[in-house]
Every structure is written in structure tokens, then in C-alpha cells.
Amino acid sequence: MANICVFLCKCFGEIDNTIDFNFLRKELSKDTSVSSLSIVDSLCLETDIEKVAFQIKETHADKVLIAACSTLSRGNLPVDSLIKEGIERYKIGLVDIREGCAWIHGDDPEGAAKKAKDLINMGLAALRYREASEDMCVPVHPDALIIGAGPAGLAAAISLGKMGFKVNILERANAPGGMLRLISQLYPTGEDAANKLNPYIDEVENNPLITFYPQSKISSIEGYAGNFTVQFSSQGKDNSIQSGIIIIATGAKIFFPTGLYRYGEIGNVITQMELERQFLKGSFDAKTPVFIQCTGARNEERPYCSTICCPASLKNAMRLAEEEPGSEVFILHRGIMMPGNILEEYYRDALSRGIQFILFEEERPPRIVGDDHVEHVEVYDAVNGITRKIETDLVVLSTPLVPSLDNARLAQMLGIEVDRYGFFPESYPMHPLETKMDGVFICGSARWPVASDQAILQGKAAAMKAVSYLRQSEIAASTLSRVPGPKSGHARVVSDFCTGCGNCVAACLFDACHLEKTEGRYISKVDMMRCKACGNCVSVCPNGSIQIPEHNYHMVGEMIKRAF
Amino acid sequence: MRNPKDISPVLVVGGGVAGITASLDLADAGRMVHLVESTEHLGGQVSKLDKLYPTDHCAFCPLWTDVKKCMEHSLITVHTLSHVKELKKESGKYSAVILKNPRYIDEKKCVFCGRCVEECPVNAIHYGWEHLYPPSCFIDEPSCTKCGNCAEVCPAGAINMELKKEEINLLVSDVIWATGFKEADLRHLKEYGSGTHPDIMTSMEFENWTAEGGINKGKIVKRSDHSVPQNIAFIQCAGARDLRMIPSCSAVCCMHALKQAGWVKRRNRMIDCYIFYTDLRTVGRDYYRYSLSEFEGTKIKLIRGKPGLIHPLPGGDGIAVQFENTLTRKREIRKFDMVVLNGNIQPSLIQYRPGQDEKTAIPPMDKEGFFNTKSDETSNFACGFGLAPADVAESVIQASAAAMRVLNKESDQR
């Protein structure tokens, strides 16, 4: 039989002005599990906490129930103090009778008292049956693994390398640099892409802590935050490395607009990347180039804006205008996407240099006219309401960045997801580089199309997030709740009853459940380092053989029984 | 591992979402942090938001956990109601003087009962933002007469009127600027009619007015007579992309307006929402889809055109908006029940022009009030809206990156 010590906090009259504590005392004295009940002025006062701790020791109570305020307010204060006194967290119950009872039902003291009684009863039931999951800590492997050596991956690697962590970079191509190697200049500064990239490549080559694996292909990823094992092949050789964290910086792919605006069928219709390649070879001139934005983007198939095409078009348009004095440059767009102060200024700059912007509508796209070479472009100018015929010698199609097809495979290996477009989604806007798996971070265009300076920023930020994992010597089993409160524990399988139906494996959001063959039959096993105690497995288990000790069946059943 | 107390601390200016993130990142990496915030609580502008785009989650939960972590972290010292008075660079380090105004109410003791608020004869005490940690009342200093009534009624003994302003001298290795944005006053631009009618609001006012945790508990009503409006106009680029006021694009307002209009539709789909835009800039994940979303068969109506005149009609009969739809090239005057002005946000430090307020140390800025990206100290160690217009996700990324640069700088010098 549990021996529970109950403390009711008056909160300087905030609670007992509404709720009749004598009624509570009378009701609770019926419960045999309550060994003592005391009323204190305020558990926020240190003197009262000392009294409480003393009384717990005096009465040799097993468990403590505090009826005070909400955890969102000051409820954690007495709990934290009691933990400091050496009482285990699962043995302390906290019931909110201030915000949820006394304050909100101030006009109905009797009802509030009854509600408080029910809540405290439920708290008692919870305390009586609550058990604790075993604690688990594993040592953290202090190496970092970065997948992809574009600007984001390189920035992350260098940041971590400078901090003194060993970094492994896996790259599919032969050399580092990613998409930055394919373009000539960067907007809005006009800086050479190579100038930006070379210091990064030098640093990667010269820092002994950073190892670069070209031509690599990952075959499997296993483990959890603090201890991932990655099997891969690099230049034909199979290899395996351990790492504490994984940063995904795989970037995005270029979209080829086959069939759009007669691309591939007629000469002088090229994509933005092909124009960049021409610039890399040397200068390129055209008398009246026409840029067409949103080629294959912001449509039904790809309902997103790829962020970088508008500024990239402006950059190339201004360059063409500069190289060929007297030329006329047109940008046909569906709304110029240049957010922010720097890009807006860049846009004004382009306007002042005489670049002509023509707005067209999705329903009436421009038409390319010509036999084997483009002769003119017909476009309905939506602002002026006229159809314009632009004589041209070059059409440049701005195509969006699209996610790599490998993203889905990589996501499956890591136990994360891809979004509806195929990019890696963040767990939450306020934690934009973290995924639902602890220790797996995303940055750069693998997350969402971004320009190189943004990708570098994201790489550094992802490295920052990784540092908080890597510098710990050991890592405790993770839980879902970032909110301080009772530890949510981990799922546990009672193997005698488990039939190996696999429902829990299908329901687990974090790839923590799997079936294992023991003594000739399959039973479910839970990887504690991955389990976040969301409870999905518990709800689908047909015979209750998977349980979370902190929230077990007896406890929840008894709580519900007492509530109604 | 070295003791964090042996390394000079880092000063983070601004306790919004960027400042909080930078502080937590640095502290988790073992650096001491001093976080300076000018208002009475951490959270910044995000604490005034109801929902976050594009996921439509509440803004409050993740912010709350981060604020709580920040307040309780052993390596972070939070200075609320403070600002940086002086900042001098001396042999690679900064010596900073922080002017800390007294809180009078000890936030660690206050139980948020509100007796002082009721007792105050001049209404100088307010409930703090109830969602923030720790919840506490605060005294608005200019209107306080120091009568001491509040201290007498406070059951927790949290009020001490004897406190004085104090100056804190710090020697810090780096300064991270995360000062965020503020709303610009649109009354200079007469055509927007700002301040002439209670139903013409700025977007932050509208957010607060319609917030689920706010005054109206998520109901969409007019501010003038509390009746349900038939239609709402969201005016984009009000004051922004305008050389008379804010030349830059504020980057967040298109999505902000789409989010607000979406929530109006979700709460009451009978209200017609019109967004008057110049370019609908929806560049992030799911942002473009956001502009196409349908609400039980009704859509947000998008009109390309910037209104030329917004004027309240006589007799409280709504607000007239005169505009040209640039896609149909028709000039129209339409009557709206509510008008929300969007886009008038600018860096919060813009008011501190050099020489104007000598008491505040400021970093180098450009003429729009953004930190100068060409200067070493700000381009590397600034983040959030003060560096460039940025939404929550971007501010957080910039903050983490700034924190990383601080750590890398230390290893460069070693």
C-alpha cells in the first residue's frame, strides 16, 4: 500500500479563498493511501519547502502529492526543490488547483472544491501506480558526419573542425563545392563564386581533422543520437564510420524543362544554368535576351517558389546588359520575388539600369515563335493589357531547384520524412534545422532552395546545434517532451504476452520498435535511445504487452475511474 | 574541458527569439552569456504573435520552453529592463556598461495574484505577458508615484520600492546584436488613414486584437462597435517599398497577411478577406501553397494594387479604400469594415541615430537602420531583423550562425 504525503498550498489565500480546504481534508481522509495531509501557506517560500522536506523524512512517506499551481506557472519550483532534497521525480505528483480550479471557477466555490477533490484523487491514483523507466545513458561518439560537400556542408564541416571535432564528409561527386562550382558570379555582390568557394576547399584540405570521401554512396545508417554507424562505399571501397551526429547537406537538383517553352526543340532557348556555364567559359553576348521566370515552378506539379531564380535572373540580366551596350533585356515574370532590404535594392538597381520587367499570368504563358531558332516571344503583358511581340536572339528559362530523388532513401535510412515536395522538413519553425530525430540536422538546399550565402549560414547554424550534442561525454535517452515536467519514460515490452503482430512497428513515428526473433518466435523490442514515449505503440497493442511505466494501464484506468 | 568562468562571457543584446537562441546555443556550448533585454520580459515580438506561418502552430509553446530554459540556465544572466549604455573595444575585448532599471517586483517571488494591480491608485502596475516565464506583474516606471501601497498588499513580499537604477560593468569577448524590429508610425503617410479610425489597424495590433489568447479570445470583431465585420482589407507594403518611409521590402508581411486572412477565414468563413499586394512574395516552404489555400470553398481574394487613399466614411459607416487593380486596370472605390496595414516594420534601433541619444551604444548601421554588413563586428555577430528582414526561422538560423562564429573566433585566436 502506498504511503502518500499530501500538501495543499494556500498560495497566500489565492487558493483557499475559493476552495474550502476543510472539505478537501474531510474528503481526502477517506483515502487509505494518504498517510498525512498538511496545509502550507505557500510552497514558493523556502521556509515552507524546508518544512515539507522535513515532514516527508519524518513520516517516511513513499510518495508526495503537491496540490498547488500549474507547471506553466510556478508549479515546478516546489518539485525542483524536492528533487534537490533527494526525492525521485516519479514519486512526486503535482496537481494544479490554482489556475485550473480556484481562478477559473472563482464564481463557483463549491464546484471548484469538487473539481479540486477529483483532481487530487486522480493525482493520488496516478502516484499509486506510476512506475519509473530505467535510466539509460550512452557515451557520445565525438565525431561528426556531414552528407554533402556543397557550401552548406563545407561551412558546417569547417565550423566543427575549428572547434576541434573530427569531421567526415561524404560527397557523391569527385570534388567538393556542389552547385557553387557550376555558377560564375554570386548575387548581389557580383563576387566570383570560385573566390568564395576556394577558401572553404583549402580549409577542408588543410585541416587534419576533416576527412573528405569523394564518390561515396551510403548503404545503411543505424543507431541514434550520439552513436550513428554509417556503412558506405567511397571510390569503390566499402567503409564504415561512427559519428555522434549527422548533418544532411545534400543540396538540390537542377530541373530540366524538357518540353516547356520548346526547350530542347529549338535553338537559343537555354536554361539559367546553361547560361552560367557559358559565363564560366567566357563572356557571352546577346542583343535582346528574354528571361522567363517560373518555368516549371509555381504550377500544379511544383506548387512552390524556388527562392533563388528571381535574383539569379536579375544578376544575369544585368551582366548581359553590361557586356553588350545598347542591348535590351527583358524579364518575363509572375511577380518578382525579392524579399528583404538587400534584394529590394538590387531590384531597384536593375530597374534603374533599364531592365524591362513584364508581368504575365499563369494562364497565358509566353509563346516562343521561330522555326529552328527563336525569332520572337509573344507575351500578354498583364499590367498594360496588351500582347507584346519581342524580337529576341536568346531565351533564358529560369527553372526551379528540385529535390534529389535520393532524399526519400536517405530519409528512410535516418527514420525521418520528406515533405510533399521531397525536401527535408524541419520539426518546427522555431527549430528550423532540427528534424524529429535527435542528432540529425538539415541545412542548405536539401531543406529548402536557398542561395549560397544562406546555405553557408545554415551550415554554420547546423554545426552550432550539433556542438551541444558533441561536447557532452554521454547522452541520456531522449524523450518527446521538451517541456519540463514529469519524465515521460520509454515504452517497455512485457515479452510473455507479446505476439509479435508488428502493430507497434507500424505505428512508431521514430523507428524505435522492431521485431526480433527470440526463442523461436518474434517479439517486439524497443530501442530506448530512439523511443520518445509518444504512446502510439501502446494504443495499437492488442493485448497490452507494450507499456510506458510512467503512464501505464493501471494508472490511467484508475485515474479515469476516479474522475467519473 | 575548460571552466566556462575562465573565458570572457558573451554579451547578447536583445531578448527576442534570435537573442534567446544565440544565448542558449552559446551556453550549451559552455560559454557564459549576458542577455540584455529592454522590456520587462524575454520573448520579443514573437511573444505578441498568435500563430506562426507556415505551420499555423501557436507561437507560444516553443517560445515558452526556450524562455524558461534561458531563465534557468546556469550560464545565462538575464538583464531585463536594461540597455547597453557604453561599449568600448579594448585590445580585442569589449568593455560594456549596462544600465539596469529596477524591476521593483521580484519575478522569482511574484505569484501573479494581481493584488498589487488592483491596489495601485494610478494604474501603474500591469500583469506581465501571462504566457511568459516566470509569470510576474511589473511596474510601469514613468507613471508610478512610489506610494508603496502595492508593497503592503503583496503576500509574497516580492515588491521592493527601494531598488535603484544600477550600472553593471562587464568585460565581454563578443557582442551579438539581436535587436529585432519595431512598427513604424504610419501617421506621417496621410493616405493610409492610420489613427483616424479604430478599425484601421496595423498588423501587429490586428494580431493582438484577434489572438486566441488575447482580448477577444479569437473572435473577429470590429474595434469600433464590436460587431462582426463583413469584409477586411489587408494592405500590403504600407509604408514599405516606399522611398518616403521604408525603402526595403520587409520580407515577412506577405506571409503574415496570408496567415492572418487564413485565420479570419477559419474562424468565420463568411468574412471576405481581400489582400492588396504589390508582389506576393511567398518564397519559403509551403509559403506559395498558402496563398492558394481554400477555406470551405471560399478563398482569400488577392488584388494586385496599392491603395491610393484609405478614408473613414462619415457616420462610422465603414472605411473607403480607393485603389487601382493593376491587372484589370480599373480604378475602384470599395467599402470595407476593417483595414489592416501591413509592412510598416523596420529595425528597432533606427531611432537611435548616432549623436541623437548619447546614452545608448549602437553598432554601425546603414541609412535604413539595418546593421552595416560591410563592418566586421556587425556582419559577423548580428542576427535577426536588425541585420536584414527575416522571419522566425531565418532569425533563428542567423542567431545560431552568429553563435557559431563567436565560438570559431575563439578557436582562431587560440
What's a concise summary of this model?
The complex is a heterodimer of chains A (564) and B (414). With 564 residues, chain A is α/β, with parallel strands linked by helices.
Question: What is the count of DSSP helices of chain A, taking H or I runs of 4+ residues?
Answer: 15
Silhouette of chain B: globular
Number of domains of chain B: 3
Q: Please state the overall shape of chain A, judged from the principal axes of the Cα atoms.
A: elongated
Strand order of the largest sheet of chain A: 8-7-6-12-23
Helix content of chain A: 25-40%
Overall number of strands of chain B: 23
Mean of residue pLDDT values of chain A: 90
The count of strands of chain A amounts to: 28
The main β sheet of chain A shows up as:
5 strands, parallel
User: Unreliable stretches of chain A, pLDDT < 50, 5 or more residues?
Assistant: 481-485
Major sheet summary line of chain B = 5 strands, parallel
CATH class of the largest domain in chain A: Alpha Beta
How do the helices and strands line up, and which of them pair or pack?
The complex is a heterodimer of chains A (564) and B (414).
Chain A: E1 4-9, H1 21-28, E2 34-40, H2 46-59, E3 63-68, H3 76-84, E4 92-96, H4 98-103, H5 109-129, E5 137-139, E6 144-147, H6 151-162, E7 167-170, H7 193-206, E8 210-213, E9 216-224, E10 227-234, E11 237-243, E12 245-248, E13 253-254, E14 269-271, H8 272-281, E15 289-292, H9 309-323, E16 330-333, H10 341-352, E17 356-359, E18 367-369, E19 376-381, E20 386-391, E21 394-397, E22 401-402, H11 406-414, E23 440-442, H12 452-470, E24 474-476, E25 492-493, H13 503-507, E26 513-518, E27 521-526, H14 536-540, E28 546-547, H15 553-563
Parallel strand pairs in A: 1-2, 1-3, 3-4, 6-7, 6-12, 7-8, 12-23, 14-21, 15-16, 15-21, 16-17
Antiparallel strand pairs in A: 5-24, 9-10, 10-11, 13-22, 18-19, 19-20, 25-28, 26-27
Chain B: E1 10-13, H1 17-28, E2 33-36, E3 51-52, E4 57-58, H2 60-72, E5 76-79, E6 82-90, E7 93-100, H3 115-119, E8 125-127, E9 137-139, H4 149-153, E10 166-172, E11 174-177, E12 181-183, E13 200-202, H5 203-210, E14 231-235, H6 253-267, E15 272-277, H7 287-290, E16 294-295, E17 298-299, E18 301-304, E19 309-312, E20 319-325, E21 330-336, E22 338-341, E23 345-347, H8 376-381, H9 392-413
Parallel strand pairs in B: 1-2, 1-11, 2-5, 13-22, 14-15, 14-22, 15-18
Antiparallel strand pairs in B: 3-4, 6-7, 7-10, 8-9, 12-23, 16-17, 19-20, 20-21
Helix pairs in contact in B: 1-2, 1-9
